[in-house]
Amino acid sequence: MFTTPLTAAAQARESASKIADLRFQKLFEDADAMSIQGYLVDGTVVYWNRASETIYGYSADEALGGNLLDLIIPAEMRAPVEGAVRWMFETGQGIPPSRMTLRHKDGRDVPVYSSHTVVSIPGQSAVMFCMDADMSVLAKAEDDLRIAATAFESQQGMSITNAESVILRVNQAFTQITGYSAAEAVGQNTRLLASGRHDAAFFNAMRGDIARQGSWQGEIWNRRKDGEVYPEWLTISAVKDKDGRTTHYVSIFSDISAHKVAEEQIKTLAFYDPLTHLPNRRLLLDRLAQAQVTCSRRAGQGAVLYVDLDNFKTLNDTVGYVQGDLLLEHVANRLTACVREGDTVARLGGDEFVVLLEHLGENELDAANEARSVGEKIRQALGQIYTLGVFEHHSTTSIGITLFGAAQPETTDEPLKRAELAMYQAKTTGRNTLQFFDPQMQVEVTQRAGLENDLREALNQHQFLLYYQAQVVGDGHLTGAEALVRWQHPQRGLVSPGEFIPLAEDTGMILSLGQWVLETACSQLAKWAAQPVFSHLTLAVNVSAKQFREEKFVPQLLALLTRTGANPKRLKLELTESLLVSDVEGVITKMAALKACGVGFSLDDFGTGYSSLSYLKRLPLDQLKIDQGFVKNILTDTNDAAIARMVMALADSMDLAVIAEGVETQAQKEFLAHIGCQAYQGYLFSHPIALADFEKFVQQGH
Ligand code: C2E
Ligand code: CA
Ligand code: CA
């Protein structure tokens, strides 16, 4: 080979270029992130750097001398690659950098970003260099992003906030659920969605969970843009930086209102009768069990009323099921209207309904009476005419009643069975009636119901009259009488007030009865005033607490005194301590007003109540009446004697007079006189007697 000697400059250039070559070689070799390969026009590998070994899996020894197309080009790309390579060698240009998916030695895809250049050195074969950056790491990150973006636009509502709960980003579902567009929501605090249904404690608990475990999950009521409050299932996760500080919150939620509705529907199906929407047997038993527990805890009682329409089957069979159903709906409505809010009306099926009454109090007879009056109300309500489309229908009802709670514990369905049995009893006794399971209770309740009806009639029928019982001082000097009401019952004869006063109090009839007593007493006083034998007599009249509490009591009594012309000084009202359970101030005011007009006051049954002495001192009383209970055993029971003494001392200190009632023997009278009691009332002097007898008694000079 012929060579020309080199000039010094050329030598310098050559060594510089050699050095540069060496540098580039090293650079090529060490470029760890960049696979660099050199190829000849036929694809023969002439250069293979270290990064190529890692990216494609072939060592330089394996690759050099091999063919590009066999090594790293997937079969389907052979033709285009061959074309491109040929073009590059022909034109001496590279193709623009591009993404390609090449092949690893082990067959897997290698995503690369590939640049190509053809280097032609005169006299040497042109070499195409490929520089491939491995994209697999980047591609994965890109995939993650794409997946995240897809996930973010999922069916669930999502929002991302900063640590101060200011919304930074929301997705499409967020907008669909809340009604707020991204533009409206971003920049707002999440309070925007608050429904106001949760208290501070709820949010404190939520924050506590997030602080402790990084997330919270639960049901929450939020408010849509249109104002509708809806339930959502919400998960909030805190996003923390590497120092553990919360930088963001991610909320994911779904609207569960549809779910809730379904849940409600399922509950409705399980516990309610689809026709009437009343609780079914299952829910009734549930409530009954609860009521039994409450009763045993509070020593109260409840009642089960088993209500069954008479002849329902006939209606169904004659006019048809549609009308039958209509009737049942009416019945359900009427039943519901008959009970209080806490009570349960249930439909067991067919024409059988059950009413569960709770909180009827401790006293069995009172509870039974209340249950009876609800039962009676139901019987009457269900007895009204029904309009069923074009039909008018009349129906009667049989009701069985039983109480539960007070006696021994029992299974839940026992009261139900008892009430049902009582209902059948009601059917056999002629329908359209109520029947208690307990025969004794039935008797008592019936009697009382009868009495109640009779009592209503009694005032109109002038069946009441006053008896008079003498009140005396010292050795029998008559000062006046206590007026005691009697009821001349057309069948039962003279009924004592002990039997009907409590009933009159319960039913409110005491008001008109009490007014009648006062009217009669005042008229009597006025008549006596005109006759010298009687003109000095006083009349003590019992006034029930309920009556005295009436707003118009004072003006009515004053008007009565004026109308009858009775001297107020001859009238003495007997009040009991039960008046002092509430509004003592009001009582004092009323008493003072009457006292100012001359009316006197005696405190009846004194010693049996629990009135506080401080109240007692403030009442404008004239007299204490030692209860007959103490007088009865005053000679034998040291306690009773001590109480009588104490009443005397108390009266003395308060400057009040004292009268003892129920004095039956001379010995009792003497004992009372001995401890300082000078006024008496009792069988020893006279029983309560009719007016004519009393007037005779007075005229005989007592
Ligand atoms: P009370 O006011 O304590 O009346 C006294 C009761 O004791 C009367 O019973 C009377 O007949 C009876 N009694 C009188 N002396 C003796 C005696 O020596 N021994 C015994 N064992 N008993 C005696 P009554 O008339 O049956 O009245 C019962 C209660 O009915 C009265 O008790 C009073 O609380 C109430 N009452 C009577 N009349 C009226 C009235 O017009 N209005 C109101 N609100 N209550 C009345
Ligand atoms: Ca009395
Ligand atoms: Ca008394």
Query: What Rg is obtained from the alpha carbons, in whole angstroms?
Result: 52 Å
Tell how many strands the DSSP assignment holds. Answer: 27
CATH evolutionary superfamily of the largest domain: EAL domain
Number of domains: 4
Descriptive report:
The protein has 702 residues and is an alpha+beta fold. The chain has four domains: 8-133, PAS domain (Beta-Lactamase), CATH 3.30.450.20; 138-258, Beta-Lactamase; 281-437, Reverse transcriptase/Diguanylate cyclase domain (Alpha-Beta Plaits); 461-699, EAL domain (TIM Barrel), CATH 3.20.20.450. The protein contains 26 helices and 27 strands. The strands form five sheets. It has an eight-stranded mixed β-barrel, surrounded by six helices. A five-stranded antiparallel beta sheet has the order 2-1-5-4-3. Helix 14 crosses helix 16 (439-460). The longest helix is centred in the first third of the chain and has 23 residues, at 8-30. The radius of gyration is 52 Å and the shape is elongated. The structure holds ligand C2E and calcium ion (2 copies). One calcium ion binds at residues 482, 542, 574, 604. One calcium ion (CA) binds at residues 604-605, 625, 627, 661.
